[in-house]
TrEMBL record:
This is HotDog ACOT-type domain-containing protein. It catalyses: butanoyl-CoA + H2O = butanoate + CoA + H(+). Keywords: Cytoplasm, Fatty acid metabolism, Hydrolase, Lipid metabolism, Repeat. Pathway: Lipid metabolism; fatty acid metabolism. GO terms for biological process: acyl-CoA metabolic process; fatty acid metabolic process. It holds the Pfam family 4HBT. It comes from Ciona savignyi (Pacific transparent sea squirt). One of its GO terms (cellular component) is cytosol. The lineage of its organism: Eukaryota, Metazoa, Chordata, Tunicata, Ascidiacea. It is found in: Cytoplasm. GO terms for molecular function: long-chain fatty acyl-CoA hydrolase activity. The keyword Hydrolase applies.
Length: 329
């Protein structure tokens, strides 16, 4: 079988893709990354593929209006019904000719047939030394992502016991408080055909773009400006949503730090069945970290609500530590 199917779309960042500061919208970037990866996945599988998970994403550089975004994806390894696709994103400034890294993404896809059943993937062969390294690393990352939920739970429990983490890294405690609940955003989106793939499944990238939208509003309200997306923790797509579904996205600030803040987003889907609102299905959840805009000053400290709010604040502090530790591994 042909090794390393590639996809390398190139996009010009236009005014419809940027925010008020002419910086590429994080949600748009997530859509392009998912679609680019899906092209490689489907090329290997020969079947439509759905996104199962997206590993932690860290955005190294902002992309500006008029710059060129280069995306390059390849299948690193096929397992049984799932495969890992790596995407490398860089941006190119036309006037200087310089190219800067934007992010590396690892996305897992499962191939499905017309009845929605998982398909066994063809054998995957790699030839060059680089392909063999990607192949080996993909297996290590797979172990990490399969056990991700359990690992994070364990780390949070360990941090809970750590006396150091009882001092949660928040901003100065005597700053003006955020009015309770202003950081909460709930938005409902209707899944239309342009949001979905050929199966009618909502694109994973589209869901992530909607998530980034509500999260950026929560973040922006807290820091009173346009916050820029810095990272997205691993996202697992628990179940599908399809054309006609209503997608409910709820976001809330979990904790604020010196120059960044973490927002949690929960996504649910429902549809009308027999004249009634059907059951809400939990599609996925994610934690997004935003940087405070330059010149915005200090982030106001916010006091979490008792119990649940305090739990979320504490967990966000622990996740921040995990993220920072990982960057230095
Ligand atoms: C750009 C176009 C593509 C899209 O955006 S599609 C839209 C977004 N995605 C979706 O709607 C998918 C929603 N999820 C689903 O429908 C189901 O979870 C899905 C993918 C059918 C799998 O369902 P199940 O049968 O319950 O899954 P399973 O436990 O048998 O696992 C199937 C394969 O996935 C793997 N897997 C499970 N959890 C994972 C994780 N956290 N990260 C990475 N891989 C994971 C699992 O190991 C298995 O792979 P393999 O068969 O061992 O190769």
């Amino acid at each position: 079988y042909a090794p390393q199917p590639n996809s390398s779309p190139t996009q010009v960042v236009q005014s419809s893709h940027v925010n008020q500061h002419n910086i590429l919208d994080g949600g748009q970037l997530l859509k392009w990354v998912d679609t680019c990866a899906c092209l490689s996945a489907e090329r290997l599988a020969g079947y439509p593929c759905v996104t199962v998970s997206v590993d932690d994403l860290y955005f190294e550089n902002e992309v500006k209006l008029g710059e060129i975004l280069n995306l390059r994806s390849q299948v690193n390894r096929a397992f049984t019904t799932s495969m890992e696709v790596g995407v490398r994103v860089s941006c190119e400034c036309l006037s200087t000719g310089k190219s800067l890294p934007v992010c590396d993404a690892f996305i897992t896809f499962v191939a499905i047939d017309a009845s929605g059943a998982k398909v066994k993937l063809p054998p995957f062969k790699c030839e060059t030394a680089e392909e063999k390294t990607c192949f080996a690393l993909a297996n290590e990352r797979r172990k990490v992502r399969i056990s991700h939920a359990k690992t994070v739970k364990q780390l949070l429990a360990d941090y809970e016991l750590s006396p150091l983490l009882n001092v949660y890294p928040t901003n100065k405690p005597h700053q003006p408080l955020l009015t309770p609940l202003t950081d909460r955003v709930e938005s409902v989106e209707l899944v239309l055909p342009p949001h979905a793939n050929h199966h009618g499944n909502t694109f994973g990238g589209q869901i992530m773009a909607w998530m980034e939208n509500v999260a950026s509003i929560s973040a922006g309200r807290l820091c009173q400006g346009i916050a820029s997306l810095r990272s997205v923790d691993m996202v697992y797509f628990r179940g599908p949503s399809t054309v006609g579904d209503r997608i409910v996205l709820a976001s809330i600030v979990n904790n604020s730090f010196q120059t960044s803040l973490e927002v949690g987003v929960r996504v649910e889907a429902y549809r009308y069945e027999g004249g009634k609102i059907g059951t809400r299905r939990h599609i996925n959840s994610a934690f997004l970290t935003f940087d405070v805009p330059p010149g915005a000053g200090e982030i106001p400290h916010f006091i979490p609500e008792p119990q649940d709010g305090m739990r979320r604040q504490k967990e966000a502090a622990a996740r921040r530590k995990i993220r920072l530790d990982r960057r230095f591994i």
